[in-house]
Amino acid sequence: MPSTELAGRVAGSWRQLPQPARRVRVGLSGGLDSTVLLHLLASLRQTLPLQLSAAHVQHGLVAGSAAWADDCRRLCDGLGVPLVVSAVQVDRHHPGGLEAAARDARREALAALGDEVLALAHHRDDQAETVLFRAIRGAGVRGAGGMRPVVAAGPGPLVWRPLLDVPRSALLAYARAHCLAWVDDPSNADSGFSRNFLRNEVLPLVESRFPGAAAGLARMGRLCGEAAGMLDELAALDLTALRLPGSQRLGREATLRLSSARLRNLLRFMLLEAGEAMPDEDRLREIERQLCSPGAAEGLCLPIGKSALCVYREAWWLAPARHDAALVSLAWSLEPSVRWAGGVVEWRETVGEGLAAAALAGGVCELRRRAGGERMRLRAGGPSRSLKNLLQEAGVPPWLRDNLPLLWVDGRLAWIAGVGVAAEFRCRPGESGVVLNWSVLAG
Q: Which residues form the Lysidine-tRNA(Ile) synthetase C-terminal domain (predicted)?
């Protein structure tokens, strides 16, 4: 592939990014792939309005790797590209192994730099290796989709892989044509690592029998990625259709009418959106079984990583898995917000709803947790009812009840999160009021 064609591909890929991207940082290991990508982007600064920079992450796992930062500095100085060098600690007890731990550490360090776009130099051979690795593990359509050329994930930078359709041989030819120097990581030759074994032993053997196999695997990954995208679209449609009116929670009765495969697709989508690692098939089927079990409606809070699948009565949803235990009591001077049991109690000014602002003015306000024996009257002239009955009637999930914030004003119970305002504190039409909310209940 001629250098001009390679540069044209990268420029075309940049123009197709979903948002204007001026500040681009290259993840620079110093190896062949990232060296070529940096050189290509540096050569395109005259035609593309790029503010180019680079970042090198030192993980200290390979003897002599500390010197690689010096090689990266020489390259960047020669190209006039600013460089940041970050040192990281790799979790040697990572459940995915040392390779996964190093990748996660690099990813976190690069994402923390606050750029618009992070450019990574993965190429077609890397894609083939990834697809094969995930297929062996039975990763399904989404996993077999391999790496995506563009990933917009959360608050971090947009991840861009402009070389994903380019074979490594084209990068090597480019580097030699431009007399580039690069670092050879000796750990890449160690086939004791699973990915190195596929790269060094398996794929060359397969290519010797089936020329073009790497291109075929990469193409399969792209097609699986398209299929996974359509599955995500289906899940998003299901999510909208199942959402209960005026709520972020989902209707359980309608959910149970979905096919098993469609429900598990929705669960995968929701867990990915929540940033959770994907459970294996057996675990996902167990989550499905518990969601669909008749007893779940009585109250289910099933931890899944940092999230939890919550079911109560005819609704289900994902929420943070753990909440801090509530304080017994907390004096509150009506600051705009105050932390409470893993969430936030906050208020907003209103007219004609919520608590009467006049009833709060000058009063001693205190948030307390449930102690037992509390009663409240919701309607003027209505009966005083126990907190237990009020919580059951309001549909507050059982696992949240002990930590629920209760607002007391001058020693009188004025508001219960998820239940409402005591009759004697209720705002009248046209009167200034305050509406309170505890964010945990919005899950």
A: 365-438
